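Hello Y.,

Per our agreement to keep a running log of every chain we model this quarter, I'm adding this entry. I've kept the format consistent with earlier entries: sequence first, then predicted structure.
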Amino acid sequence: MTAVLFCVAAEREGRAWPIKRDDVVVNNDIFNTWFGTELNWHYKSLPQRAAVPKHRMPYAGYIYPDNQGGTASVLYKYDRAFNSGRGSAAAFERTDIARTRESSGGGLFGARAHTPDWAGHCNGWTAAAIRHAEPQRTVTRNGVDFTPADIKGLLAELYV
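Predicted structure for the entry above:
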C-alpha cells in the first residue's frame, strides 16, 4: 500500500503560498519514520482507491472511563509483574482519576465530588488501536498473565 498524505498550500487572492523547504524536509523525515514510506505532496498523484492492510486495521476496544476505575485493574497486574507488587502504577492511576473529580450541587448536604462521565482513556485507546495490531494472545511475565484485553488496557494507558 502506498501511504499518502497531501498538503494544500494556503491560497490568498488566487496565489498559492509555498511551503518552506525546511518544513518539507522535516515532514518528509517524520512521515518516513512513522510509516516507512515517502510522503506524497502532489494531489494529482494520489491513488483513487486505497485499502488498509489487515494488520493495521483499528480494533474494537474499551474506553476505560475514570468513573469505573480507568485502567487501574490492569495496572494492579502490571505492578505485580514489574514492580514487585509495590502498586506504584495503580497508585498513579488512582491519583490521576482523583484529579478529574468535580464538585456538584450545594443543596442541603453540601457539594458532592464525582468523576465526570466524559473523563477516561478514550484518547489513549484510540491511539493504541490505530498504532498497534490487535493483541492476539496471553503473555505471562513473572507469573502474571496478561490477556489481550489487559494488553489493550496497558496500551491505552501508555498513549494517554
